[in-house]
Amino acid sequence: MIRTLKPSDRDRLKQILESSEQFSGEEVSVAMELIDITINIPGQQDYNIYVKELEGQVIGYHCTGRRPMTDAVFDLYWIVVDASLKGKGFGKELLNHAEKFVKDHSGRLILAETSSKENYGKTRAFYEKNEYSLLAEIKHFYAKDDSLLVFGKYFMLNS
């Protein structure tokens, strides 16, 4: 089951983020900031968080939102699955849900930003496997030898 975020999910999501070998402490802090905004500011529409449950336990989430100053572009800010459950299709299920959210809100493009660091190789492969294209690369963005990679997927284009 995938459902909207509840305040009671916060601690479990933090645990999932912290147990990931992929995210730095700073990245976890940013993810938690978006979770807290979503929980503490009812009605805000910048961040839309949905959690995946398995047998009553939260096992992952995605955070998606419309990109400011665009007519129909959305960002996939976060997509995370409990490290012990990776490779079982839950990430794809969350990604499909995020894409449906974008389509349901008349989005034409979803963007996912990631790092060129070696430990993000599985993330890049995940996007490519799910028909995302590398749309942009900014060299040495996060740090020297750590580039920003922007993957995207188009849903509809009007001629």
Summarize the structure.
The chain has helices at residues 10-19, 25-40, 90-104, 121-129; strands at residues 2-4, 48-54, 57-66, 73-81, 109-115, 133-143, 146-154. By secondary structure, the protein is an alpha+beta fold.
Distance between the termini: 37 Å
CATH architecture: 3-Layer(aba) Sandwich
Low-pLDDT stretches are none
Number of folding domains?
A: 1
- Quaternary arrangement of the chains shown? single chain
Major sheet summary line: 7 strands, mixed
Number of strands: 7
Shape estimate: globular
Strand content: 35-45%
Spatial extent as radius of gyration? 15 Å
Task: Work out the helix count.
Answer: 4
| CATH 4th-level superfamily | Gcn5-related N-acetyltransferase (GNAT)
- Mean pLDDT over all positions: 95
The CATH topology annotation reads as Aminopeptidase
Distinctive features:
single chain; 159 residues; alpha+beta; Aminopeptidase
What this model shows, in words?
The protein has 159 residues and is an alpha+beta fold. It has a single domain (2-154), classed as Aminopeptidase, CATH 3.40.630. Helices cover 31% and strands 35% of the residues. It is built from 4 helices and 7 strands. The protein has helices at residues 10-19, 25-40, 90-104, 121-129; strands at 2-4, 48-54, 57-66, 73-81, 109-115, 133-143, 146-154. Strands 1-2-3-4-5-7-6 form a 7-stranded mixed β-sheet, with helices on both faces. Helix 1 (10-19) runs antiparallel to helix 2 (25-40). The N and C termini lie far apart (37 Å). The mean pLDDT is 95.
